[in-house]
Each structure stands twice: as C-alpha cells, then as structure tokens.
Write the structure tokens for this entry.
Amino acid sequence: MPSVPSRCRIVVLISGRGSNLEAIVKAIETEALPVELCAVISNRPDAQGLEVARRHGFPTHVIDHRLHPERASFDHAMMQMIDRYQPDLVVLAGFMRVLGADFIDHYAGRLMNVHPSLLPAFPGLRTHERAIASGASQHGATVHFVTRDVDSGPIIVQARVPILPGDTAETLGARVLAEEHRIYPLAIRWFAERRLAVRGGQVLVDGGQQSAERPPGETP
Ligand code: GRF
C-alpha cells in the first residue's frame, strides 16, 4: 500500500499581537493550509499571540530574551526548543528579534518571514510611515526566505496595496496587514506542497520564476 505522505510540520515564532499566527491557524482549521502546527514560541511572556495559540489548543513556550544577555545563548535556547519538534519549516510571524548567523544557517531554506513592505523597498522598521513619506503610490507586504542579511532573502510572494490620499501609518498599515494575512498562509502552503525552489537567489513556484504576485493558476 502506498504510504500517506506526512504533513509538513511547522513551528511559529512570535513576539506580539499574533494576527499573522491567527491567520495561519484559521487557514489550518479550514483546511486551506495542510500543515501540522507543532508549537508557538515567543521571546516575550506577555505576547498576545500566546493566547491565540492556547485558545486553539497549540503548545506554547516562552524563551525570554531578557534572560539571555548574549544573543548566541538566546539563539541556542530557541534552536533547542524548536528542534524538539523537528519542524520542516520555521515561520517568523511578527518575531521582533534579529537572529544570528548560526541560527539562520541551521534553518537555511526552511525559515520564512513576513515583512510589511514591498521588499527591497523599506527594509527595517516603521515601513508604513516611510512609504507615505516617500511619496510612493503603492506599498505592500512580502513573504521571503530568511538569509543572513536582514529583510533581503529570496522573495516568495508579494501583495500590493495603493497608498491613498490622507493615509496614515495606521490606515495604510491595516490595509497591508490584511494582505499579510492572505499571502502568508499561501506561501506556507506552497512550501508544504513542495512547490518552491530557490535558484540563484530567486524563488521558483512550480518551476517558474514569479514575476507577478499571482503565480500560474493561483489567486493569492
Ligand atoms: C506584521 O506587520 C509583520 O509584518 C511584522 O510585524 C507585524 C506582526 O503582526 N513583522 P502580528 O503579531 O502578526 O499581528
């Protein structure tokens, strides 16, 4: 008898509100996302996202970065906890600590992040404010693989939103966040379905280079 392929195992890292985690959980529960969420780990004991995870019955852990003055020790404690679950993919969902090279190399090719801008535009913080100040007409969100250079790994999918007259960082941020919630579960699904490959720093979806936000046959 052919064996049933096992579900892609993911561990999600958070630091705060957890709305992207919630979008991922919803997609799992509605079977739009065929993965097993093994655990949610926060570097902050007060992260609201921990409540989201508990409410839905997923295991949670806190590795408090304040108890690890050295980054290497924090990263090591995170890796030990993550690896207990043997995940296929580690998902950064509003995880606000910069991770060291050893951590990133350990999860190379299986570490994803969502960033609230159309990378390579506006890496770093306060992206909505900076997008408005730049006079750009469009902004958006990016899901990418994490590499040693912050906010610049291979891009898996992006979604655009308009910048409207009178937008504030809050109104624009809300429009972008809705797109993050749409494209993050999608990128994780492509990974779980083994549809992603990275060649020469570019992500291929189903073997094709992704030039637009909609890969072949898909409505993100
Ligand atoms: C998101 O905008 C994400 O792109 C950024 O931090 C925010 C986290 O939001 N890295 P949430 O915790 O998922 O609600």
About this structure: Strands lie at 8-14, 35-42, 60-62, 89-92, 111-115, 138-145, 155-162, 196-199, 202-205, 208-209.
